[in-house]
Amino acid sequence: MADVQRSVATELDRIAPVIDELGRRFAEAGHELALVGGPVRDAMLGRHHNDLDLTTSARPDETERLLKGWAEAIWDMGRAFGTIGCRKGEWLVEVTTYRSESYDPTSRKPDVDFGDSLAGDLGRRDFTVNAMAVRVPGREVEDPYGGIVDLAHRVLRTPGRPEDSFSDDPLRMMRAARFVAQLGFTVDPSVVEAMRSMAGRIEIISAERVRDELVKLVCAPYPRLGLTLLVDTGLAELVLPELPALALERDEHHRHKDVYQHTLTVLEQAMDLESRLPAGGPDFVARFAALMHDVGKPRTRRFLDDGTVTFHHHDVVGAKMTRKRMKALRFSNDDIDAVSRLVELHLRFHGYGSGEWTDSAVRRYVRDAGDQLERLHILTRADSTTRNRRKAERLQRTYDDLEERIARLAEQEELDAIRPDIDGNQIMEILGVGPGREVGEAYRFLLELRIDRGPLTPAEAETALREWWAAR
Ligand code: ATP
Ligand code: MG
Q1: Residue ranges, CATH 1.10.110.30, the chain
Q2: Residue 169: CB within 6 Å of ligand 1?
Q3: In this structure, what DSSP letter does residue 406 have?
């Protein structure tokens, strides 16, 4: 507890120049202002960030007036919900009017009733560790629900009965899993129980809001914890059913490993490789591809007469399923294309054997991966969870070999920009045709040739083109 007090004092000193000044401004106008939620929780955990959430007795118009002349930029974050945003130097500040919300259980959005007290505002927050405030400029800590104690025990509890809280806003169930993944906390058994019994209520929440929590969860330091909670409470069955479906994959003879556990391990191994990416981690696309890479297995599983199991085409089937799920969750087309392409290609390397690919097969691998090549390297390497050390090392060495070949080929011929050796205009000139279908066909022919044989001189390309044209 002393640790908690020390970290919060240190953090408050750091942000004092901003919040004390703003606190005095509001106080002079007869209003209360308090730092609340995430920044208070994170200060107590010794984590610093420059996004400051504040809550106030002032109504939004008044808030805006008080921020004017102080902040360098002001914007409307959702005035109807009471939030005005602003920036001052390196600080991003959001000020929200006290709320005392009453919900219509059938509606998706809370009806906002502005409230009059800080205590009332804290009572409608999701978890006790998020229901703490520090008044400014005085710095009195308000912790009506024992958030400090829960923080010390690293546990998520709701301020009131969890059933009431989740009934008011079912998204809070997703938020529980997200905070577990972000903070590494456990969840109070009463909260788990409420999540289990009320999981079905998540259906009234928009796909976009569910997606946003899922993204935060997946990008957090402990996604396994959050995902396990979603699966154990039945929420995953509703928001990402492909994941719990993997747990059924252990057949009665235990002949192949549990694909669900394998998947979580692949995800963690992919996280360990994120530093390879230019932007580093956390990388949602790489992580989500790891999570989805085997989702085609349940549907493609076949038991052969000799007792072995096969999953033919689970890569292609899995890519389709991934696309469908991500569409339902309203992901962007770019994210959908990237993740499903990785799922589709995750097995390709296994045809590499111990290095038998021709140069043309290596070029095809690079071309098909496109701008996802680095992530494909990550996914393929992460997708080895064998306990047999020698086997694991052999796989990694073989992949090293493939990467070296890609690098060598790339150097020789700037592989990442594979283009035929002559362009469309030259094709028309050589063949004496105008724009049309034939030019496209000729271009594709030259592209295939380029992949099979590597770069050609213009003369070689022209000869090949003429031969192809004549034989057509
Ligand atoms: P982050 O670091 O991700 O921003 P945060 O705790 O600030 O974490 P936000 O989603 O920004 O999370 O929400 C800010 C605060 O508002 C939370 O700490 C919590 O007190 C409250 N809050 C947000 N969403 C809800 C909700 N659906 N139900 C109840 N309280 C909520
Ligand atoms: Mg926040």
Answers
A1: 154-240
A2: yes
A3: H
Which segments of the chain belong to CATH 3.30.460.10? 2-146
pLDDT in tens, the chain (472 residues): 677 778 888 888 888 888 999 999 999 999 999 999 999 999 999 998 899 999 999 999 999 999 999 999 999 998 888 999 999 999 999 999 999 855 555 555 555 689 999 999 999 999 999 999 999 999 999 999 999 999 999 999 999 999 999 999 999 999 999 999 999 999 999 999 999 999 999 999 999 999 999 999 999 999 999 999 999 999 999 999 999 999 865 555 554 458 999 999 999 999 999 999 999 999 999 999 999 999 999 999 988 898 888 899 999 999 999 999 999 999 999 999 999 999 999 999 988 888 889 989 999 999 999 999 999 999 999 999 988 999 999 999 999 999 999 998 887 776 556 677 888 889 999 999 988 889 989 998 998 898 888 888 889 999 999 999 999 8
Rounded CA gap, 174 and 211, in Å?
Answer: 10
Tell how far the Cα of 402 is from the centroid of ligand 2, in angstroms: 43
Assess whether the C-beta atom of 201 lies below 6 angstroms from ligand 1. no
Ligand nearest to the CA of 93: 2
Residue intervals of the chain classified under CATH 1.10.3210 are: 248-417
Find the 52 Cα to ligand 2 centroid distance in Å.
8
Ligand 1 atom closest to Cα of residue 39: 7
**CATH topology assigned to domain 2-146:** Beta Polymerase; domain 2 (3.30.460)
The ligand that comes nearest to the alpha carbon of residue 48 is 1
Amino acid type, 458: P
66-84 burial code (b ≥16 CB/10 A, e <16): bbeeebeebeeeeeeebbb
Quick one: which atom of ligand 1 is closest to the CA of 124? Answer: 29
CATH number 1.10.3210 given to 248-417:
yes
Report pTM: 0.86
Evaluate whether the domain defined by 154-240 bears CATH number 1.10.110.30: yes
If we measure between CA atoms, which residue out of 417, 433, 415, 414 comes closest to residue 425?
A: 433
d(CA 393, CA 332): 37
Beta carbon of 461 within 6 Å of any ligand 1 atom: no
| Nearest 10 degrees: Cα torsion 425, 427, 432, 438 | -110
